[in-house]
Amino acid sequence: MGQHSPARTQGEWWRSAVIYQVYVRSFADGDGDGTGDLAGVRAKLPYLAELGVDALWFNPWYLSPMADGGYDVADYRSIDPAFGTLAEAEKLIAEARELGIRTLVDIVPNHVSDQHAWFRAALAAGPGSPERELFHFRPGRGEHGELPPNDWPSQFAGSTEPVWTRLPDGEWYLHLFTPEQPDLNWAHPAVRQEHEDVLRFWFERGVAGVRIDSAALPAKDPDLPDFVEGHDPHPFVDRDELHDIYRSWRAVADAYDGIFVGEVWLPDTERFARYLRPDELHTAFNFSFLSCPWDAGRLRTSIDETLAEHAPVGAPATWVLCNHDVTRTVTRYGRTDTGFDFATKAFGTPTDLALGTRRARAAALLSLALPGAVYVYQGEELGLPEAEIPRESIQDPMHFRSGGTDPGRDGCRVPLPWTAEAPHAGFGGEPWLPQPADWPAYAADHQAADPASMLALYRAALRIRRTEPGFGDGPLTWLPTPEGVLAFARTDGTLCVVNLSDTPTELPGHTQLLLTSGPLDAEGHLPQDTAAWLRP
Predict the structure, then answer these.
(1) If I label 519, which of 254, 270, 420, 457 is the partner at 20 to 30 A Cα–Cα?
(2) What is the mean pLDDT of residues 252-257?
């Protein structure tokens, strides 16, 4: 265990960091009530230090009615009692930092909870009040105002629900997500001021960075016009006004040496890169790589395009295989369709977990060898599959707003298995989502004792990435390979080879085999769906 090397914790640490995503509700339950909490995370800090991560990104841990997994924030300055207290959060931030691990928190600028003090005041104040100017309240259309003010589509994939809710006083309010998440009016100076104050509040408590949820959505066309496919500018996505907001945020962060990572889903690479200009966000999530199928040509294209779109603004790329919203990697890679698309999620999709696990192991080495920062979602280092949640136990609003056709995101949010022989696989009390019967087989203590486990692979890969020169931010050079094989060299010549073809492939010349995702064959060749790191 022990602290991380100074090279990875000084200066622009974020350009090469490995950041572990903690979905607190499902990580570890310290008080036995079935919900993960900060006490549980604090107890597992030695595990995270031994894993070798540089930072922890926490999904929202604030006071929330949990209408959307905490992304409906009622108070940014309070920790939800289900998770603990503000004092515990401060202790967690400090204890992690002593182990060389930084902390990132989540901010959700597009909306707040309908239980937020601002929205409750707006409801009480009535039409035309200053309190309602903090949100988007409008009269309806139609003879009696019975129709929504516009026809904007919901931002929940597959949802046919309206994005407007009518109140008894006749006015409607906008919510791009659920009715419990009213959208804020970012044209109002008080909204901007409050969020800058919230940033300072957390930076002053030792947070090193902030992840910005739905970062391209907060600004709206003030006229709230109907949605016209292909019309530019879009009425609520990627509006130019956003950049002034994020420049103001950057000034706040720079005063604390803090960093931002934006959740920016945009198909236009040039517009995506605008968010990463030197006076805006430091980094943004890379969704093309996350959703890319297990195909050598398409992965190489995704990698090349990602590096190319970051290069003009000098920002490091980020790489992620999975998060709290998408199908777990071992399940996705074991399916006929190995890509990810919210629109294609369905119940009962068959998967070959052995195949998916082999590919996920190779993908781990691929992602960890690429230039820039890497995000690892909790449980990926255990090779957890997507759980099939019984319909009667599903809690995700995405499922209900799809009319029950979308299985939702609960399958990747099942509480983690820590101890194979303990009740509930060592998570704590009876989990808030049911664990599959085979969960103990994936338990961290079981894997820690197995040198062939997914956990052992991640620990070894992170140790090498931290101690060997050439990993992290910097150039990448592709090497000539047979079809279906990816191979590239990093800054000091360290090689990564990934075989996605149907046959074993010869390894390029090397002096040392640093790590493989699976054993070589009898001839010393790299088998199908296997990756290797080599010293030249």
Answers:
(1) 420
(2) 98
What does the alpha-carbon distance between residue 313 and residue 353 come to, in Å, rounded to a whole number? 40
| Closest among 296, 293, 292, 291 to 501, alpha carbons compared | 296
Tally Cβ neighbours within 10 Å of residue 50: 16
Distances (CA, A) of 369 to 363, 462, 486, 499: 10, 10, 12, 15
Contact present, 501 and 513 (Cβ < 8 Å)? no
Neighbours of 113 (CB within 10 A): 27
Kind and range of the H or E run holding 513: strand 512-516
Nearest Cα neighbor of 212 from 176, 262, 280, 248 is: 262
H or E stretch covering 399: helix 397-401
User: Which residues belong to the active site?
Assistant: 213, 263
Residue 37: pLDDT over 60? yes
Widest Cα–Cα separation across the chain: 79
Whether the pTM exceeds 0.90: the reply is: yes
- C-alpha 403/C-alpha 69 separation (Å) is 19
Extract the tokens encoding 207: 């947070």
DSSP helix/strand/coil, 515 = strand
The whole-angstrom separation of Cα 309 and Cα 316 is 10
pLDDT at 5: 33
Q: Could you give the CA distance from residue 298 to residue 402 in angstroms, rounded to a whole number?
A: 30
Tens digits of residue pLDDT in 167-215: 999 999 999 999 999 999 999 999 999 999 999 999 999 999 999 999 9
CA 59 to chain centre: 8
More confident residue, 344 or 140: 140
End-to-end Cα, the chain, rounded Å: 28
By residue count, the chain amounts to: 536
Per residue in 481-502, pLDDT tens? 999 999 999 988 999 999 999 9
Enter the tokens of residue 118: 């601002």
Do 306 and 328 meet the contact criterion of CB atoms below 8 Å apart?
A: no
Angle, in degrees to the nearest 10, between helices 353-369 and 454-467: 10
CA nearest 82: which of 43, 41, 24, 20?
A: 24
Rounded (10°) angle between helices 241-255 and 189-203: 30
Where are the alpha helices (H) located in 347-387, listed in sequence order? 353-369
Whether residue 454 contacts residue 381, with contact meaning beta carbons closer than 8 Å, is answered with yes
Q: How far apart are alpha carbons 294 and 297 in whole angstroms? A: 9
Give strand pairing partners of 269.
none
Burial of 23 (0-12, 13-18, 19+ CB in 10 A): buried
Q: What's the rounded Cα separation, in Å, for the pair 244 and 257?
A: 20
Q: Which of 297, 275, 277 is nearest to 286 (CA)?
A: 275
Count the alpha carbons within 13 Å of 177 in the hemisphere toward its beta carbon.
26
Cis amide bond preceding 233, omega within 30:
yes
Name residue 22's beta-bridge partners: 58
Mean pLDDT, range 144-150, rounded to an integer: 97
Q: Which residue has the tokens 């006490």?
A: 39
378 near 22, Cβ under 8 Å?
yes
Nearest 5 degrees, angle CA 306-CA 324-CA 435? Answer: 145
Copy the structure tokens of residue 111: 């909306």
